[in-house]
User: Fold this.
Amino acid sequence: MKGFNYLKKVLFAIRNKMFSIPTITTLKQDTETLHEQRIEALETMVRYQHYKMSDLRKRMRFLVAQSPSSFPEQTQTKSSFDYQWNQLNEGKFLVSDKAFVKNLEKLICQYTTLEKDWFKGKTVLDAGCGQGRFTLGFCRLDANVAAFDQSSSAIRFVKENCKEYTNLISVTEHNIFEPIDFVEPCDLVWSYGVIHHTGDTYKAFSNLIKKVKKDGYLFLMVYGEPVLDNILTFAEQLEYSRLRHLCQNKTNEEKVEILKQEKPPEHLHGWFDAISPHINDTYSFKELESWLLAAGFVDIKRTFENANHHIIARRQHCV
Assistant:
């Protein structure tokens, strides 16, 4: 209502200016003022449309997830990740990145806000583990890890990357939508950059929370939608959209060649991950927070300043 009243005031001011006979000096001043008022009015309208678009996207996702027409998108996304883990398994923030691996335990503690000693002997479910970069970190923290991914290529690399920790790890090829009946509820369920690629983020979320112990933790990294007052988040999404359109209808190999021309080689894996899958849903923190609250989670917080959401939450014992 405040925004509407302000817009109405601006429109009345514009009308009054139109029916007055200003001097040259007054006309210049009034033109500058009117220009500023129009910009403010446009900003108000853009803000309103941003919130409405976010609400509409939230509802649309639930409708699309129930439609058989979404299945080809899921198939393409799975195929893209199979190729990615098989052919693009080296680069920044992967197991081949020595600096990243050296910092793994510290990074996990930073993301979860849990102390290093907390992990010893705890059970962890790494849902959508990819090549096992964080699986390796949990093993080095002396946790017992059940890791799964739907990509057979990824599973092969997990076993290779964590071969020193066979006493702490089990690895399963598994679809996140299917019942996770190969592991009991865990002290920590971890899913980094996964559920927004599924085509039904809420369904994947609902399946994962069943495996969180009472008083256990859930960690999620989920793509964030652009944030008002942060133009960089819009610029980032614009770059993703530009590259997705550039790579539209291209083979995986052709996408790689395009990205080689556009981005540094050490970031090839990350950019392919971001733009190749057809399913790349983005969310506001408030929407994700509402799911967690409804599911009985408390102490919900973002743990890392980033355009994407790094969220830790604790499941109440009484739930």
